[in-house]
Amino acid sequence: MTRHYSALSLLKEGLAGQKGWAKAWESPEPKPRYDMVIVGGGGHGLATAYYLAKQHGITDVAVVEKGWLGGGNTGRNTTVVRSNYFFPESVRLYDMALKLYEGLSRELNYNIMLSQRGMISLAHTPAEMEMAARVVNAMQINGTDAELFGPEDVKRVLPIYNFGPKARYPALGGVWQGRSGTARHDAVAWGYARAAARLGVHILQQCEVTDFLIEGGRCRGVVTASGAIRADKVGLAVAGHSSQMAAKAGFRLPVTSYALQACVSEPVKPILDTVVLSPGAGTYASQSDKGEMVVGGGLDRIPSYGQRGNLPVLETVLSGLVEMFPAFRQLNLMRQWAGIVDVVPDSSPILGESPLPGLFLNCGWGTGGFKSIPAGGVLLAHLMATGQHHDISRPFDLDRFTTGRLIDEAAGSGIAH
Amino acid sequence: MQIFSCPFCGPRPEPEFHFGGELGNHRPAPDCSPEAWAQYLHFRTNPRGAAEEIWLHIPCGELFKMHRDTVTMTALPGRALGDQP
After folding, report:
1. Cα separation of A139 and A129, whole Å?
2. Is the CB of residue A81 less than 8 Å from the CB of residue A104?
3. DSSP code of B39?
4. What whole-number distance in Å separates Cα of residue A247 and Cα of residue A26?
5. Whose C-alpha in A16, A90, A202, A340 is 20 to 30 A from the C-alpha of B13?
6. pLDDT digit string (tens) for A224-276?
7. What is the pLDDT of residues A300-341, one digit of tens each?
8. CA-to-CA distance for A49 and A40, rounded, in angstroms?
9. What is the per-residue pLDDT across A97-119, written as a single tens digit (0 to 9) for each?
10. Quick check: A354 contacting B, CB < 8 Å?
C-alpha cells in the first residue's frame, strides 16, 4: 500500500490505476482502555493526539468525536492564520502556532495549502491609526513581524479598495503582517488525523462522550455511546460546547457560547490576493483558491448554540464589504453558516488542568481557534504528558480568573468581543 | 430578524436588545473568597437549551428577564424583574 504522499508516489499510483493508496486513517473498534483520551476531533484535539505521539512517545491515545472530523469550528472558520496580538504572552502563543503552520505541510506529509499572502488590518480614522501604530510597536517588540502601513501602501496591496472622496471607510493605513495568510482548514484536520493515526492513535468518530468516569475525585475516563473508555488522563477540546462537558465534570467555566458567522460568494477570477480586515466596518475577507470570496465578521450578539447565525450581523458584515469593495456588489452569495465559539471575558484561551484532576482543558479560543491549532495541540499534549505547564501556556491557566491576572486582548489588539 | 418582546414596549426587533447575563447570578458579600468572587464575576452556566436571562431594551433603558432556548432561539415574552416567578 502507498502511504507516503509525493510526486513519485502520485506517478506510481497514476500508472497503477490509483488502486494502491492506503486509507488516510482507519476506524478501529474502541478499546476499553487507553493511556489518554482526547474529547473532540477538531483541529485542536487531533493536533494534541499527534503531538502526544510525536513529541512525547505516548501512542496509546484515542480521539473521541461525536460527529465527523473537523465538522465543528475547524470546518466553519474563514481559514485565516496570523499572530497580530498585543500582549507578549499572546504573541508567544500565536506566533508559536504560526511558526508551526509554516512547517506543517512537510511535517505531516499533507499539503495544508498554507498561503502567507499577508494581512492588512485597516485603520479608517486618525484615532485608529494611533492604535495601529501602538499594535505594530507591540508586535515588533514582542518579536513578530509587523509593519505600519500608510495610504499608499494600502493602495499597493488593495487596488480595488474604495478610495473615493465620499468613501464611508477611508483607508488611512493599518497594521500589516506579511506572514499572515490562509490555510486549507479541512486539510489541517485531515493532515493531523492521518499523521496521528500512522503513529498508532485511534480515531473514533460518531462516538459521543456522554459523561466522565470520576473515581476518588479524579477523572478516570469517559462514558461514550459505545461504552465506557478508561484513561489515565483526558483532554477536552470541544470549543463552544466546553460548558456542557464541564457541567458533566462538576464545574463551570468562564465561557459564553456565541454564533460566529461566515459566508462565501460564487467563485470569480483572482481579484483579492491578501487578507483584509476592517475592525471599524466589522468585516474581513479573503479569496479562496477556488475563487470564492470568504467573508466573516463579528459575533452575533445573542448567546447561542444554533449553528446558523442571525441576519442583523450578516447585514453589518456585508454592508461593510460592499462599501469597502464596490466591485463586490455584483457578487452572489452561495453559502452562509455559523460555528459556536467559546468566548471568554478576556478573549484569551484557557489551557491547563481543570478543577477535576486528570481532566485537561483546551478551550476559550473564541473567534481565534483555527489559527492556533498547532500551538493548542503542542501545549495540551505537553500538559497531559508532563502534568506541568509549558512556559507559553502558564499565563493562560484557568486560575487567572481568580488571581485577576487577565490577558485582555479585547483591549489589547481590539478583538471584537 | 428575530423579534423579542419587551414587557414595557411590546414586540421589537433584536438589534434594540442587549444581552445582560444569566438570571440568578447574585453578587456575593464583599468579604467573600476570591474564588466566590471569580465565580460571580466570570464563571457562567452557559446553558444549551432552556435559559433564563436578563436583557436590556436599549431604547427604553429597562432591564427585564426573558426565557429563551439557546438552540432553537425561541423566546417567550419578557417579564419585568419584579414579576414572579
Report:
1. 15
2. no
3. H
4. 32
5. A340
6. 988 999 999 999 999 999 999 999 999 999 999 999 999 999 999 999 999 99
7. 989 999 988 889 999 999 999 999 999 999 999 999 999 999
8. 11
9. 999 999 999 999 999 999 999 99
10. no
CB B45 within 8 A of CB A254: no
In A78-226, DSSP assigns E strands to: 80-81, 119-123, 147-149, 173-177, 181-182, 202-204, 209-215, 218-224
Residue A151 pLDDT level (bands cut at 50, 70, 90): very high
Q: How is residue A360 written as a grid cell?
A: 485537561
Q: How far is A295 from chain B (nearest CA, A)?
A: 20
Q: Do the chains contact at B34 and A402, CB–CB below 8 Å?
A: yes
For chain B, domains (ranges, CATH) are: 3-80 (3.30.2270.10)
Residue A233 CB: number of other CB atoms within 10 A? 25
The model carries a pTM of: 0.96
Distance CA A374, CA A98 (A): 8
> Cα(A43)–Cα(A119) distance, rounded to whole angstroms?
22
> What cell was used for B71?
438552540
Reference A118, options A83, A76, A155; nearest CA is: A83
CA–chain centroid gap for A83, Å, is: 12
Amino acid at A159: P
Under DSSP, the state recorded for B26 is P
Which residues of chain A have a CB within 8 Å of the CB of B46? 243, 252-253, 255-257, 303
User: What is the number of CB-based contacts under 8 A between chain A and chain B?
Assistant: 68
Retrieve residue A365's grid coordinates.
479560543
Inter-chain residue contact B42 with A303, CB threshold 8 Å: no
CA distance linking residue A156 with residue A292, whole number of Å: 22
User: Domains of chain A (ranges plus CATH)?
Assistant: 26-110+184-254+346-412 (3.50.50.60), 119-180+257-343 (3.30.9.10)
Average confidence (pLDDT) over A13-22: 93
Give the residue-averaged pLDDT of A183-195: 97
DSSP, collapsed to helix, strand or coil, labels residue A376 as: helix
